[in-house]
Structures are given as C-alpha cells and as structure tokens.
Specification:
CATH topology: Rossmann fold
Distance between the termini: 32 Å
Helix content: 25-40%
Number of helices: 6
CATH superfamily: Alpha/Beta hydrolase fold, catalytic domain
CATH class: Alpha Beta
Enzyme class: hydrolase
Pfam families: Ser_hydrolase
InterPro entries: AB_hydrolase_fold (IPR029058), RBBP9/YdeN (IPR010662)
Largest sheet: 6 strands, parallel
EC number: 3.-.-.-
Protein name: RBBP9/YdeN family alpha/beta hydrolase
C-alpha cells in the first residue's frame, strides 16, 4: 500500500516559498497540518499535539510524516496511540526549544526511541539547533542522521526552495518503508516498541 504523506510545519508555519509548501503544491496527495494563525505564531504544545494526533487519525495508516523545525518536536510529544498509524518520518532541521523563548512550551524534548523508521536531516550551522543536539536527537529517536555542512535552517531563507535533495530523501525513505511493511511469506516484520532510553 502506498504511504500517505503528512507535512508538519514548524513555528510560524511554512510560507509559500518554503519547500514544504512547494511540495504540497506539486504533489496534490500530500496533506498538511493546519492550525489557526495565532497557534502558529504563539505555539502551545497541547494545541499542536492535539491537532497533529487528530490529523494522523483522520488520514489513517500508513502515514509518513515530513516535519520541519518545531514540527519535529511536536511529533515527539505524541502519545504512543496517536503514533500507531505512522510508519515513518523525515525530520528536517529539528528545533531546540530550550534555545528559543517562544518555543519553550515544547521543552523538554522527549528522548525516546520511535517505533518506526526515520531519517533526520540537520545542518552544522542551524541557528535553531546545534549539531551536537541534532546528533543527540538522532541517537535517542533511532533516526539515521544526515548532517549537511553550513546550509542554515533548511528553509526558504537559507535557499532551500524546491529542495530536490529532500525529495530524494523522502522517496528513499518511502521505498524502505514499503519494503519493510510488505508481508513476506505471510508474516510482516515486527515493529520496535516505543520505550524510554
């Protein structure tokens, strides 16, 4: 079964030039987390998590999350039941809410292994998250890390408009998920339980 893609923007939403918005315009099947303008500008963890859980439930399995910045952290705060339909995630430039006062409601960040395959794309000079923090996230969440050299926050402002390299990461992830979730010999592979490190 072909996976469904849910785009999860970060603080202040993703504008029209952001790669998430461009992907949504290009691929009509992609869905997106929607919030009220005030909720994007003044992020509250409870609001974001509830909206994200509802959207995942609405789409149903199998869902692949494509999260940017604070959106990556919102995913980590989802309860295990809300993550049940999720089969994979691409985390891009995750934020460190401890470094930004407007994001403080999302701290501390859960450091638990995720029950699905995931990739984390980060930058060595991201102003929202130091490289060592990105490494810690990847290790804790069980994500494969790709650390790019000096590319900023991987958004429109850092020159990542269409971001074709990101699409390649997403397609590689989806192919891996399709392979892992397709039953072989009538038996599907077991999923790793979500447990604290």
């Amino acid at each position: 079964m072909r996976t469904k893609v849910l785009l999860v923007p970060g603080w202040r939403d993703s504008g029209p030039d952001h790669w998430q918005s461009r992907w949504q315009a290009r691929f009509r099947a992609f869905r997106r987390l929607e919030l009220a303008p005030v909720d994007w500008a003044e992020p509250k963890r409870e609001v974001w998590v509830a909206a994200l859980a509802a959207k995942i439930a609405e789409l149903g399995a199998p869902v692949v999350l494509v999260a940017h910045s604070l959106g990556c952290i919102a995913v980590q705060h989802l309860p295990p039941a809300a993550l049940a339909p999720v089969v994979g995630a691409l985390f891009v430039a995750p934020a460190d809410p401890a470094n930004r006062e407007p994001l403080a409601d999302f701290a501390p960040v859960p450091m638990q292994r995720l029950p699905f395959v995931s990739k984390l794309i980060a930058s060595s000079d991201d102003p929202f998250c130091h490289a060592d923090r990105a490494h810690a996230y990847a290790d804790a969440w069980g994500s494969r890390l790709t650390l790019l050299d000096n590319v900023g926050h991987i958004n429109a402002e850092s020159g990542h408009g269409d971001w074709p390299e990101g699409l390649k990461h997403l397609e590689t992830l989806r192919r891996e998920i399709d392979w892992k979730t397709e039953p072989r010999g009538g038996i599907a592979p077991p999923r790793t339980p979500r447990t604290a490190l």
